[in-house]
Write a structure and sequence with these properties.
53% of the residues lie in helices and 7% in strands. By secondary structure, it is mainly alpha-helical. Among the domains are: 28-112, Orthogonal Bundle (Multidrug-efflux Transporter Regulator, Chain: A, Domain 2), CATH 1.10.1660.10; 133-208, Multidrug-efflux Transporter Regulator, Chain: A, Domain 2, CATH 1.10.1660.10. The longest helix is centred in the C-terminal third of the chain and has 34 residues, at 237-270.
């Protein structure tokens, strides 16, 4: 007699296939989705989503899909909406999971978060060249993708920064840029660095003053890499992908912690 098949949860199946039938009746209801179907439904907006990432969010108690007797996860429309909210808070507001958990507990929903299109539009409007006090975009950037490339003219036009400031940032190693066919290009992260520095420059912060930020970032990067060093060096693609996802989450947590420490110190001045 052959042993009973292992349940999907125990076997770690990708659950991309529909759940089995029970007594000839399909377990999943018309509004329920398997984890594979959920990933497929959201990958258009979140290219980095994966089954392992959804499982990780469940492990962190952010999701609680129901399970069939056979162990398959089934996600309701509410579960999918909650997941979309979590992913948008990670991507658009760069929030760590602990803070996201608090946001959800406080009633934050998908409807409270602007769509990517409206977010981009408001970002462009808020950061128009020459506008004092322009809002600085608070967004996460994938560690695996650098986004598009922007010429020096594009960066100047979109950020309102002076060319002299951009040259100064290169001189001090804050940004690097790359030359292609005689034109200087910058990736999306560097463009946003220029945008942030341009805002600081309005308050008299010069490029040489940014060394403290660069030194701090270098030290934090080294620390986070040390924490996940074995997994990041793994030859197993799945393990390495999970390590990079964990690294992105650690970066978000570290960023939030640094923000809190800064607020704590500056609060003393405001008293």
């Amino acid at each position: 007699m052959s042993p009973a098949p292992e349940s999907p949860a125990a076997a770690g199946t990708d659950e991309a296939e529909p759940p089995p039938t029970a007594g000839g009746v399909v377990v999943a209801g018309p509004k329920s989705l398997t984890i594979g179907a959920v990933v497929k439904a959201l990958v258009g907006e979140f290219p980095d989503i994966s089954i392992s990432k959804v499982r990780y969010l469940e492990d962190q108690k952010l999701l609680a899909p129901r399970r069939t007797p056979g162990g398959y996860r089934l996600y309701s429309a509410g579960d999918v909406s909650r997941l979309r909210t979590i992913l948008r808070l990670q991507r658009d507001e760069f929030l760590p999971l602990r803070v996201i958990r608090q946001e959800l507990a406080g009633g934050r929903t998908e409807a409270d978060i602007a769509s990517p299109a409206s977010t981009d539009e408001s970002t462009r409007a808020a950061s128009a060249p020459g506008r004092a006090g322009a809002a600085i975009r608070r967004a996460s950037f994938s560690l695996r993708e650098t986004g598009g490339l922007y010429s020096l003219d594009d960066v100047v036009e979109e950020t309102g920064a002076e060319r002299k400031l951009i040259a100064e940032l290169e001189e001090y190693g804050i940004i690097a840029g790359q030359a292609r066919s005689g034109t200087r290009y910058y990736d999306e992260t560097e463009r946003e660095i220029v945008r942030s520095v341009a805002e600081l420059a309005r308050y008299g912060v010069a490029g040489r003053n940014l060394r403290v930020f660069r030194t701090s970032a270098d030290r934090e990067s080294q620390l986070l890499q040390q924490i996940l060093a074995p997994a990041l060096r793994s030859r197993n693609p799945e393990r390495r992908r999970e390590a990079i996802e964990a690294l992105e989450n650690l970066a978000a947590v570290a960023s939030h912690l640094k923000h809190l420490l800064l607020v704590r110190d500056l609060r003393r001045v405001a008293k």
